[in-house]
Amino acid sequence: MLCRTTIVLGVISCGFCGELNFPPEFKFGVASSAYQIEGAWNVSDKSESIWDTFTREHADIISDRSNGDVACDSYHLWRRDIEMLVELGVHFYRFSISWPRVLPTGFPNYISEDGVKYYNTLINALLENGIEPLVTLYHWDLPQRLQDLGGWTNPHIAEWFENYARTAFELFGDRVKTWITINEPFVVCDMAYNTGLVAPGIIDPEIAPYLCNKYTLMAHARAWRLYDKEFRHKYHGKISIANQLFWFQPLTDEDKEVTELALENCVGRYSHPIYSKKGGWPPSIEKTIHDNSRRQGYLKSNLPVLTKQEIEYIKGTYDFFGLNHYTSRLVRKAETGEKLSPWPIGDAPDFDARLLVSPHWPKTSSSWFFVNPPGIRKLLQWLKKNYGDLTVLVTENGFPNLGGVEDVDRINYYRDNMHEILLAIKKDKINVTAYTAWTLMDNYEWMDGYKSKFGLYHVDFTSPQRTRTPKASAEYYKSVIKAHSLKVPHIIRVNNPSSCSRHHASSLLHTTLLCLILVNLAFY
């Protein structure tokens, strides 16, 4: 039998270790979402979501033709999830409520007792263990019935979402003090309708993304104003939206203007109406889409008008900036006649730009994901420059690989990104107050199925018990939280070298020493 031992892979040593300590009030958490972990897709009276439909009708798009019918089975195994959160020592757990689980018809005319019981049980268990629930109202699993009525391209969805939000605030608001309205409307709108690679699987790049853009903003604003008017004085909570932000940087100095358009198209269309002093669409994007629409033969811009009343209604509907960040792109102007692939994971046809990656950015198991840790600090600087001094919660940040529990690559990603955040806090004076690791455990990763693993815990999807096992990254993150600092050892567990061949033991020692040197050098 091979016994296990622990090897210190690296200890950060540097001349500025004071920069590695987080502010005393800084909080650490982990995140998940309902469709990705809950399973129980048709248990009790839950209705189908657009992802239940999409994975059946478009299984060929999913890399392993899988679905989230069972996923991590957290609907039944929530007790183990709580144990893992306690093991990590997190301050908060970000999870989402499944709209079709709580409101099977999509409307509050019928509220599921079993659905409400599940979330009440989860919330109460978190609080009993000293963990704050941070709840997302919408993480992509729209009731299929509402999609049949037009989904996020129907202007009535803003009212439907407000009614759903009211139900959630009334049911859970006495215990939930931090809310996210919509997770990554950029994916809900731009990714969905430009590529068809995510639910609802409809490709309509000229019209649908912009309708969806407006109505997700209106839905968010209605939920925020509802909470502000009717619930804040009772529950004293906070509520905002979580935006997915790529960092874009110019390939050359000649590409600066088109790079700024890329930032406004990704970040600005979903942030400027809420966080800027003037509100409304980013002017550069408003002009670009208007000009493109006329060239395409439309009589007016495909970007819907925001009336003065709507601009004022959306503007200022935030208590913090929810920042999801994973990866970056280089931007250059397209050459004449150059073929461009669809935005956002290909190129940017709307403003004739190629989106590229640096050969120095490591690849991951996800085709869209390349590692560039400085991107998160640059994004934070861009947000401060454009929207002023905001309180920022990093609501998602994580790394995918193909599996394994000795995930040094994930440790490096977390360490490097958290270090960039610390620099933003201490050097740039940006008020980042929380970091959320994506994700608690391996789960259903949308079009990647179960191929890409983001988890701090490994999940055995071949086991009926969906056995969860901590990875090296879980031990590392636990150490960071406990120390409230990045000045912690990198630890991996390996088979005892004494049980291995002499050659294997020698190779292991060589690798360990090399990694130790590299880790130390990385922080000078």
Characterise the protein shown here:
Homodimer. Keywords: Glycoprotein, Glycosidase, Hydrolase. Pfam families: Glyco_hydro_1. The chain is of the alpha/beta class. It folds into two domains: 1-21 and 487-524, no CATH class; 22-486, TIM Barrel (Alpha-Beta Barrel). It contains 16 helices and 15 strands. It has helices at residues 34-37, 50-57, 74-88, 99-102, 113-128, 144-148, 157-172, 185-195, 208-235, 256-275, 283-295, 308-314, 374-387, 408-426, 472-483, 502-522, and strands spanning 4-11, 27-31, 92-96, 132-138, 178-183, 238-244, 247-250, 321-324, 328-333, 353-356, 391-398, 431-438, 457-459, 468-470, 489-495. The strands form four sheets. Strands 2-3-4-5-6-8-11-12 form an eight-stranded parallel beta barrel, surrounded by six helices. Strands 7-9-10 form a three-stranded mixed sheet. α14 (408-426) links the parallel β11 and β12 (431-438). α3 packs parallel to α5, α7 (157-172) packs parallel to α9 (208-235) and α13 runs parallel beside α14. The chain is globular, with a radius of gyration of 23 Å. The protein starts with a strand and ends with a helix. 49% of the residues are buried.
